[in-house]
Amino acid sequence: MKAFLAATLIAASLSPAMQAQDTAKIDARIDAAHAVLHELLNTPDKSVPLDIAARATCVLVVPSFKKGAFVFGGEYGQGVASCRTPGGRWSAPVFVQLEGASFGFQIGGQSTDLVLIGMNHHAIDDLLKEKVKLGGDAAVAAGPVGRNSQASTTELANAEFLTYSRSRGLFAGIDINGDVVHQNTADTDAVYGHDIPYARILSGAVATPPAAVHFVATVNELFRRGVAHRAADR
């Protein structure tokens, strides 16, 4: 009994420290996702076209999506997403996990940054699901690159998500059909204090945590620049 009580006290004393460590890791992930978007904004001629940014309903960033010994040589990453609310603002972030098959151009141990742009309301609906298979539950396509490129083909026009990767500072469209997106309830609990339903967060009913304000602001800036570009072309 004494040993049990001692173990319980030790676990209780370690819990706040472990929670703080988890929060620090999530904050670092948010910072990394923000850095990816910031670079995307600074390279408009070699990244997501502004016409596509203007139509975005969700932006999901998975920094350092890794290939290695995660799931029998598969790939795994954790990311952050924000969606446009009915009121036109961008929501507080939700946290996701992404796993799937290997990218053909990667060598074991390498990683890449992924950006998924939701193109319609179906993208938001899909993020509300517990598990979404890209290319199955949600239509995806490798996105075009360049300031004035447009999603003109049928495949791109019908896609719920357009997908991009960044490797060595360059963005390119990428095929991630077959990958699976999971809700990351553990991170949600760590950031918001309890497991808030994704629908409530993405509706705009939840305030953006201070650690994620810069990420949401950069998502909004990407969208704003796209809208301004489209208005100037009319």
Question: Which characteristics define this entry?
Answer:
234 residues, alpha+beta
Description:
- Mean pLDDT is 80; it is low at 4-15, 69-73 and 103-108.
- By secondary structure, the protein is α+β, with helices and mostly antiparallel strands.
- 39% of the residues lie in helices and 24% in strands.
- Strands 1, 2, 3, 4, 5, 6, 7, 8 and 9 form a nine-stranded mixed β-sheet that branches.
- It has one domain.
- Helix 1 runs parallel beside helix 7.
- It contains seven helices and nine strands; from the N terminus they run H-H-E-E-E-E-H-E-E-H-E-E-E-H-H-H.
Please report the distance between the alpha carbons of the first and last residues. Answer: 76 Å
Largest sheet descriptor: 9 strands, mixed
Q: Averaged pLDDT, please?
A: 80
Shape: globular
Number of helices: 7
Indicate the low-confidence ranges by residue numbers. Answer: 4-15, 69-73, 103-108
Gyration radius, rounded: 19 Å
